[in-house]
Amino acid sequence: MPTYSPPLRDMQFVMHEVLKVTDDLKLMPQHVDTDADTINAILEEGGKFASEVAFPLNISGDAEGCTLDKTTHEVTAPKGFKQAYAQYVQGGWAALSCDPAYGGQGLPFVVNQCFYEMLNSANQAWTMYPGLSHGAYEALHAHGTDAQKALYLPKLTSGEWTGSMCLTEPHCGTDLGLLRTKAEPLADGTYSLTGNKIFISAGEHDLAANIVHLVLARLPDAPVGSKGISLFAVPKFHAAADGTLGARNGIYCGGLEHKMGIHGNSTAQMVLDGAIGTLVGQPNKGLAAMFVMMNAARLGVGNQSLGLTEVAYQNALAYAKDRIQMRSLSGTKAKDKPADPIIVHPDVRKMLLTAKAYAEGGRALGIFCGVLLDKEHSHPDEKVRADSGEMLALLTPIVKAFITDNGHISTNACMQVFGGHGFIKEWGMEQYVRDNRINMIYEGTNTIQSLDLLGRKILGNNGATLKKFGRLVAALVEEEGVNEKMGEFITPIAILGDQVTKLTTEVGFKGFQNADEVGAAAVDYLRVAGHLVFGYFWARMAQVALREIAAGNTDQFYLAKVQTARFYFAKLFPETATLMRTIRSGSKALMDTDAALA
């Protein structure tokens, strides 16, 4: 059976020693009193909930799955899920970073980011039930009417109700311009919605009294394509203005998907049969409102893979220290045993360190983005808000795609550490591989994220935002460029920064002549950009650790951090050289293949 220990020490290191998040928070009036001790205390309790309440339900929830009553269309979550959710609500965890105007605690988003990492490590399938509510909350908070906010936000904040996002239809996934769900206006100002949605995570369940579905649909006179999409709030149960529940609405679960992983979460086929909803935002402007939810979800999906990478690493590390097999190639290490622990073997260490490096790099990026989100929403300086939002938009596809790709690499590596036992359910490792696999697909496949990064976020503004991140790298290079001990961390990012600038110009020039050049380059480009970002954060973490060691601090944590940084730059970062070569090979070898694909 697997185990899990919340990585509180590493979270504290990134927040308080590397990023010094409280310095930023003190500049925001609503967070001025949120100090390091407060953050640490909250996350310590959050870690207990994750490890003691959510984690024990992970394997059993996977084995049991969800059950649909086809007569009532009600879905029952696995045993213990409802009780755990009740504890989550009772503990006030749903309200952690929500607006105090609607009953929230008003804590920084970055605190919620760390709490949810631990929940995802403990039980991704369970965490998706409350997790979807955050996106619904954000979309309604940003675009809802006063009446919608008054009705829905207090209930979503408390956790009494949950939320879902209903986008995908059987004939279209990412290309939402093809959706067919119809919304007919009614005399009382509401709308009657008819259509079918699929792949709706947490679309139906028994954890909460009501579910607020945010549904994309078309008005009768809507323009074709994505410019004709509107967003509607459609509750499972009708509700009076005071929140009192009434009759069942015409939206129900017609079936559950049979999936590779996340069995404990209900992935529902939703049928809208005259369901009554209210318009969110402006007619035909639904994508703008939904993107608030989608961007929150994309950051959340990256966090899911971060959590799975961490828990997989912890268990693989423990197993590698305990499992004995063969002798070390360089001589016996455990003379009192018939064989050495497998952790002595170089390739086992490579697999473990890969997961560790990707987990800790992903954590630094995730926390950095959490602070950007806080600054975008709460900083008193308008320019800081705008700059933070711009940087967050650049990094969001990297969080979603790079961290989930790395999660796939890491969970597979950790399963491999277990050998044949990793393929067996009772150890829990194969579940981490299965659960993580969806993270590369939903909320826009990682190819879509790559196209968004290169096409929209970088080439779309001629690299202006990328240059802003480049200035962060350049500042660190200038600060530490003459420090010999930092050379192995600084030199690679300095070189890659220059290479990415040249590469971007090349791809952009080719793309003007042939758009397929951008499509051919995008996925590899995102991994190059991801390594530049991770390299920057690993260099900053190494910087802090080396300073502590130089000051005489003997805490082995800092030595471990330097060793992991050294591994990352020596064994993972060089992937960029191959990627840049494949990018420069262009689109011809892909597109001039009609005979090969006949």
Short descriptors:
seven-stranded mixed β-sheet, two-stranded antiparallel sheet, 18 helices
**Strand composition percent:** 5-15%
Mean pLDDT: 97
Shape: globular
Low-confidence stretches: none
By DSSP (H or I, 4+ residues per run), the number of helices equals: 18
Described by strand count, sense and barrel closure, the largest sheet is: 7 strands, mixed
Please report the total strand number as a whole number. 11
Helix content: 55-70%
Distance between the termini: 48 Å
Evaluate the radius of gyration.
24 Å
Spell out the helices and strands N to C: HHHHEEHHHEEEEEEEEEHHHHHHHHHHH
Sheet/helix structural class = alpha+beta
Concise overview:
By secondary structure, the chain is of the alpha+beta class. It contains 18 helices and eleven strands.
Word description of this protein:
The chain is an alpha+beta fold and 598 residues long. The chain is 57% helix and 11% strand. The chain has 18 helices and eleven strands. Strands 3, 4, 5, 6, 7, 10 and 11 form a seven-stranded mixed sheet that branches. Strands 1-2 form a two-stranded antiparallel ribbon. A hairpin with a 4-residue loop joins strand 1 (67-69) and strand 2 (74-76). Helix 8 (286-322) runs antiparallel to helix 9, helix 8 packs parallel to helix 10 (382-417) and helix 10 (382-417) runs antiparallel to helix 12. The chain is globular. 52% of the residues are buried. The mean pLDDT is 97.
